[in-house]
Design a protein that fits this description.
This protein has helices at 3-9, 15-23, 116-123, 143-151, 184-191, 222-226, and strands spanning 27-29, 32-33, 48-50, 53-55, 62-67, 97-98, 107-113, 131-137, 164-169, 172-177, 196-204, 207-208, 217-220. With 228 residues, it is an alpha+beta fold. The strands form 2 sheets. Strands 5, 6, 7, 8, 9, 10, 11, 12 and 13 form a 9-stranded mixed sheet that branches. It has a 4-stranded antiparallel sheet with strand order 2-1-3-4, with no helix packed on it. A hairpin with a 2-residue loop joins β11 and β12 (207-208). α1 packs across α2.
Length: 228
């Protein structure tokens, strides 16, 4: 692979910017200073350093975030803050995008990747990837409402698939669904005459928030995901 392409893929900058970085003498390959962007390297063997920091080539990258409320799930928006604004500087943002969406006021687990094929697979209705939400609700929930949620409810021209409900307290539940319809969780609770007051996604397939703090981001591997 050409050195300039490698540096672009590692998120160092645009093709023009990395050429300047190389010209400035900031790049070493196997501890030798390289001044040509056309230099060919073996990404499986050669060690590349930017100002003595080792760069690791990864064609596909995967990160999970514990999303804060107040940010929309989009790559860019002219009027709103997006989840991309929450990503720290160490994250390589080139071609990165969130998988699916969480509402602006919803917190919790959000996956990011530049692997478009995987993104499409996870969001496909045929995949039925389970998503679990911690929910606080306005009114106490009874067994009849839980049964409706687990059987399937009408959220407006669509009957939801069977879900799982774990009651924590009268006004706190975990809800696991296999779809990702617009405002689905909120509409499901409205369908049983209740209202969501707080919503956080705690798992997505095999991925779990665990002790990831609000706003925190962690890099993961494809192996963490494909166990789904």
């Amino acid at each position: 692979m050409r050195l300039d392409k490698f540096l672009v893929e590692c998120g160092v900058g645009s093709r023009k910017e990395v050429k300047q970085v190389i010209s400035n003498g900031e790049i070493k390959v196997n501890n030798e200073l390289i001044d040509s962007p056309k230099f060919n390297l073996d990404v499986t063997k050669d060690e590349v350093k930017l100002n003595n920091k080792i760069l690791t080539y990864k064609k596909f990258r995967y990160y999970i975030m514990n999303k804060k409320a107040g940010y929309i799930t989009a790559v860019e928006d002219l009027n709103e803050k997006t989840v991309m604004d929450l990503l720290p500087d160490w994250v390589i943002k080139k071609d990165l995008a969130p998988v699916g969406r969480l509402d602006k006021d919803t917190e919790g687990l959000l996956l990011f990747t530049n692997d478009g094929k995987l993104n499409h697979k996870l969001l496909s209705p045929k995949s039925h990837v389970e998503k679990t939400y911690y929910i606080e609700i306005e009114k106490s929930i009874d067994d009849k409402s839980i049964n409706f949620l687990e059987t399937g409810v009408d959220i407006g021209s669509y009957i939801t698939m069977p879900a799982k409900v774990h009651k924590i307290e009268d006004k706190k539940i975990y809800l696991t669904i296999k779809e990702g319809k617009f405002h689905q969780v909120k509409k499901m609770l409205e369908a049983v005459n209740n209202k969501v007051t707080y919503l956080k996604r705690v798992s997505f397939g095999n991925l779990k928030l665990n002790d990831l703090k609000i706003g925190e981001v962690k890099e993961i591997s494809i192996e963490d995901i494909i166990k789904m």
